[in-house]
Every structure is written in C-alpha cells, then in structure tokens.
Amino acid sequence: MALKDLPVDECLLQGNAACPGCPATIGLRLVLKALGKKTVMVVPACCTAVIESLYPFTSFDVPVMNIAFEAAAAGASGVEASLRKQGRTDITVVAWAGDGGTYDIGLQALSGAFERETNFIYICYNNQIYSNTGIQRSGATPYAAWTTTTVGGKTEFRKEMGEIVLAHHIPYVAQTCISYPEDLYNKVSKAKNIKGPKYIEILAPCPPGWRFSMDKTVEMGRLAIETGAWALWECENDVMTFNGKSNLLLEKKIERKPIEEWIKYQGRFSHLFKPEKDVVKIKAIEDHLEKTWEYYRKMYLRK
Amino acid sequence: MTIMMDTGNRIAAKAAVMARPEVVAAYPITPQTTLVEAIAEYVARGEFKGEYICVESEHSAMSACIGASAAGSRTFTATSSHGLLLMHEMLHWAALARLPVVMCNINRVIGPGWNIWADENDAISQRDTGWIQFYCSSNQEIFDTVIQAFKLAEHEKTVLPVMVNLNAFILSHTSMPAEIPEQHVVDEYLGSYVPQWKIDIDNPTTFGNIIGPDYYVAVRRAMQDAQENAKHLIPQIAKDWQKISGYFHGDFFEYYHCEDAERILISMGAIGAESKIAVDNLRKKGQKIGLARLRVLRPFPTEAVVQLGKHADLLVIDRNISVGLEGAIFTEVKAALYGESDAKVHGYIAGLGGKDVTYKDIEAMCTSAFKGTKKGQEWYGVEA
Fold first, then answer.
1. Same domain, B345 and B227
2. Most exposed of A111, B25, B228, B348 (fewest Cβ within 10 Å)?
C-alpha cells in the first residue's frame, strides 16, 4: 500500500492532547486507518490516556476502554471473550500500550494472553521510556541513555521484547517504526486478518523524552533503522523476514551507519559527547549492536 | 426443585453457573480451588455455555471480568485471601467503572506465615473499594445470595460489583444440603443481562479517560448513592427470591431471639451460625440474649444497628482486626450508634488465623462481656 493510497478516514481526531511531534499519534492514525471503525481499543496507563483528551471529550472515533497499567492484555482478553460470545468476531480487539506497560509492568498479563491464544492484536508503541510519568527508565531504555531515574546514563542494555514474544510462537509478531508508514500499515492490516494473538511493536521516537527537536521525529526513526538500533521484521507462523533496510543490513548488502549518527541528535546521549567524547561508552553501544546483529544473522538469515 | 448435598464451594459454583454468566475468568487459590474446578467440570460436561478464561493471576481475572463486563457480558469470578489482595486495584476499578461483576470470596488468612484457614481480614480490607459485601453462614444462603447478587449488581439503581463471602473450610469445604430450583426459575428471576453502559462500535465512546475534580466527585457521589439504593433493594430482591424459592436471605441481619433480648450478640459468617447454639444455651440459663448475624457489610446497615441498640447492650465479635485500632465491625457498630443510643458495646477479637470458635467459646465471651458493664475490646483465647 502506497502512502497516497491509505484510507482517508481518520479515527484519531483533531484537537487531541498529544505533544507536538508526538510519534504515538502518527502510529495511532496509521493503525486505525488499517483497522477501521470495527475496532475496540484497550488502553492501559500510558501517554495515550492523555492523548484521548479530558472527559467528557475524546479524540477517538472508536470505542476505547482504559484499564490499569499492568492489565491491558487481560482486559482485552475479557473484551474479546465477551464479543466472541456475542458472535461479534467481526470486531478487532486491540490492546495499545507503551513500553512500560509491555516490557515491564504488563509483561505477565501479555504472556498469559498469548499463551491462551487470545484472538487480539497487542500493539506496543515503544518510546524507550516511561514518558507519561516524565521520562523514567524502562526495560526498553537503551544503554547510556539519560532519564530522570538514570541521571548518569543507563548502565544496562535494553531487553529484546521481540525475542520474548517470539518464544510464545504466536501466529504473527512484527517490529515496525512510525517513520515507515507503509510498513506499519501493511503489518497491522496483515495482523487484522490473522486469527489468534498478534504482537506488533512500533518504535516511537519521543521529542521531549529523547531530547530532540519536535520536527525530527520521523528522521530519528529512520536513523534508528539505518544504524541498526532498531529493526523492521515480521515473523509469520515462525517464519522470520527482515524488511526493507533492516533486511539489507541483515544480508550485509548495506553497512550499518555508525551509532553516533543517531545518538548525536538526542539530548539524552549528550553526556557522551561533552565535555569530551566518551569513546568507551560509544564503543560499548556499537559492540553490543554488532553482537545483536550477528545474533540476528545466526538465527534468521536464510542460507 | 432438587436437594443438593455438597460443599459451600460447589454450591456456589452451581449458583454461578445457573445464573448463566457469559464470561467467567478465574485463577485458583486455596481454599477457593474446588469452586473453579467445579465450574471447569460444568464446562467439560457442556452444562456451562459461557466463556471460561483460565487467566494467569487474580489481577488478570478481575481485569478480564472488567473487560468482559464492559463489553456487555454477565461475569463471575471467585478468589480468596492473597488473590483478593492482588485484585485490590481492579476491585476499585470495577466499582468506579460501575461494572456489575459478581465474585465469591472465600475468607482466608493473609500471610506471612502461610495459613489457609478462616479469617475475614481479606474481605474486610476491601471495604472501601465500592463493592457490595455479603457474608454467608450456610450453603443454602450461599446459593440464594449468589443468585441474588447478580440481580442486585445489575439493577439499574445499583450497577455495582458484589462480593459474596464464605469462610474458608467451615463453609467452603463442608457439605450441607441446599434446595436448588429448576433452571427456568433462576432464568425468570434474573432475566438476561441488560448493561447500563457498554463498549459499542456503533456508539464509540471513551471510558475512563482523564477526568477533572468536578466530574470525579460526581462519580464518587453516584457510587455512594448506588450503595444507598442497594439498602432498599437488598430486602426487596430477597423477597422476590423468597416467593420463588421459599427461602428468605435478604435482611442486613439474621435476627435470632432478638425480640425480647436485653443483650444482643453481633457476629458474622461461620461464627454467626455457631452463635445460635450459644444463644440457645444461654437462654436456657435464663439470660435474655439474642443474636444479630450481620450479613451485609457494605452498604453498612446503620439504621438496623441503631434499632438493635435501642433496647439492648451489644457484644461484637470480630474475626478481623484493623491493626492499630480494633475489630472493624466493632468500630462501625459504635459509629452507627453515636448520638443515637446509650447502649454499651463490648468487643472481642476471636478466631484469627483460623482459630476455632466454638459455641462454648461464644458463651464464654457473652458471659464475660455482659457480666459487668464492659466497654472496649478484648482478645479472646490469646494470652496478653
């Protein structure tokens, strides 16, 4: 699907309460274009609870049920069971959660819903921090990134949520990014037509959280892909395919851009560049990425 | 009508299944396990047609019930002790979202140390969540109360979740007979679930988004009004059920020899049932004593407590403690009487940790409490 051919209907309305340059709204618009109006959203505590706007208003033109932070997948399980019992299998149930609600506090409910083969799409919009509470570290925060709870830079590497989900062997798992709208739209559209649990994770570069200019949201996503800090892939019935530039990186048809090309634009890494360049930490990031991509190649590169 | 001779848990499961919830989501915990296992047997035999979600925690059990209820389904779950405590956040959520989930809670000790016996601190600690709370003392009452719980929870003037409590083992695992009506009788009594609000793609609405103080106050006030409404509905719903079943379980108290009583014992749950024997024995000795077994903790029956205090001194036995103060029912009874009655109120804490409370123990507490003009609260059966 080319960008110009995307449906014109909008289910995320104007006047929502998102920050300028917010990646979540880009993701929501594309997701809801792909899913259409026969969709129910289950939203735990995350930025989207703000984006919805203040009661009695809403910025959504599909039903939204808010639920507690750790409960998105369980709440969605209940909605799905009820709708199935009512014979409404034409309605898509979507849990839409941030990386805090997915990687950390909501991981148990997520794993349970996948193991139970719940027929829903779980979408994690990952901005690599607890952003709604004001930029604290999450399990998705990359090594060395400043947050308000990792003031000197995070001392651990992020976990690979995709690998955790893959271990559930559900019918569809995908990673995408708001900077690749066709990729995102196509993956959500595909998930809509698959029965069983589906997981899609969207990298969502956050201007206030990552400390970059609000006009650079899309560019930060592209650089994440080009430096290999994030990867576009989909795994359908245990068959893994890397997509676009991520596939070219996997096959070594292009070189990964140095990680500096991504982190130098982000204030959360500024302590790696001043007062003087921290070559040790930058190399540590680069080495970790190299190891990650070698792992991807070992696991997923088709011979 | 048939007689079912079975445990409290299995009779609760029978009632739940006969209420035809569309979705049950539950997680096993001792001593609730035989209840959810019984539902699984109904599923296996094709006698329960609803969706049965075997979730991975009690928090998810209540979250799934919330999702299913919001989507328009009648829902049921059951838990106990630590399971109830893990649900705590979602208990508030279900009540604030005005979702008529019905739950059985098997009152069990909270750890550490691990102890699976009867104790009411689990449910007592959930008093402020907005749930309506019943406490049963026989298997017939469990059956009748679970059926009525759906009627009350879903009533347009209530729309609140309801918790039906039964003491661990003394009720949950003890066989007693219960009269079970035909399915069509329950169907006619309950009708099908008509949600007051639900998720609807044809009327897309956002539920539970950010809310300012003025609207939030209105939400809380509406919950309080709904609890007040429940005070009127509980006896009415019970009378409707009595017409069908012949059993009346519906007052806030079960009164036993209270008419001429100068002293009234207030107890709850299994101790409430045991108290009848104690009252019989003390009456044989010439004491004008009665029993008011508390069935409903929320909404708290303030007016009924005042009536008790008009002509009698009171003794409250609590199988719980609000640590740092006293037994919760002792506190609430005294609060109800404040400015309304000069009745003396004495309290005992008894039966914590599943410690057996026999009719002899209750007789001893009554004799000691009413000997003088004791006020305040004591521990029974524990060395100071």
1. no
2. B228
Domain count, chain B: 2
pLDDT of residue B382: 83
Any chain B CB within 8 A of the CB of A140?
no
pTM, full prediction? 0.97
Residues B63 and B143 in one domain: yes
Number of residues that make up chain B: 384
Using CB atoms, which residue from A68, A73, A79 is nearest to B199?
A: A79
| Straight-line distance from the first to the last Cα atom of chain A, in angstroms, rounded to the nearest whole number | 29
Chain B hits for A90, CB-CB cut-off 8 Å, are: none
Tens digits of per-residue pLDDT, B60-91?
A: 999 999 999 999 999 999 999 999 999 999 99
Which one of B221, B245, B269 terminates a domain? B245
My answer on whether B261 and B360 are in the same domain is yes
Domain stops at, among B220, B245, B270: B245
Mean pLDDT on A197-225: 98
SS3 B236: helix
Looking at the complex, report in whole angstroms how far the Cα of residue A12 sits from the nearest Cα belonging to chain B. 12
CATH number at residue A211: 3.40.50.970
Q: CA nearest B54 in A: which residue?
A: A116
The domain in which residue A279 lies consists of 3-300
Residues B67 and B98 in one domain: yes
Task: Please name the amino acid found at residue A265.
Answer: Y
Q: Which of B138, B134, B140, B128 lies closest to B153 in space, CA to CA?
A: B134
| B229 and B279 share one domain | no
How many angstroms separate the most distant Cα atoms in chain A? 63
Is residue A72 within 8 A of residue A122, CB to CB? The reply is: yes
Q: Tell whether B31 and B48 lie within a shared domain.
A: yes
Contact between chains at B23 and A85 (C-beta distance less than 8 A): yes
Residues of chain A with Cβ-Cβ distance to B67 below 8 Å are 42, 65, 67, 74-82
Chain B CB contacts of A86 below 8 Å: 22, 71-73
Kind of pairing between the strands at B253-256 and B289-294: antiparallel
Q: Write out pLDDT tens, residues A118-142.
A: 999 999 999 999 999 999 999 999 9
Pair of tokens at residue A146: 């400043």
Question: Which residues lie across from A236 on neighbouring strands?
Answer: A172, A239
DSSP A100: I
ipTM of the predicted assembly exceeds 0.90: yes
Residue of A nearest to B92 (CA): A68
Task: Indicate the residue of A38, A52, A85 with minimum beta-carbon distance to B209.
Answer: A52
Q: Answer yes or no: are the C-beta atoms of A187 and A242 closer than 8 Å.
A: no
Q: Which residues of chain B have pLDDT under 50?
A: none
Parent domain of B213: 2-245
User: Does B384 map to a domain?
Assistant: no
**Whether residue B237 sits in one domain with residue B261:** no
Instruction: Quote the pLDDT of residue B144.
Output: 97
Q: Does A161 touch chain B (CB under 8 A)?
A: no
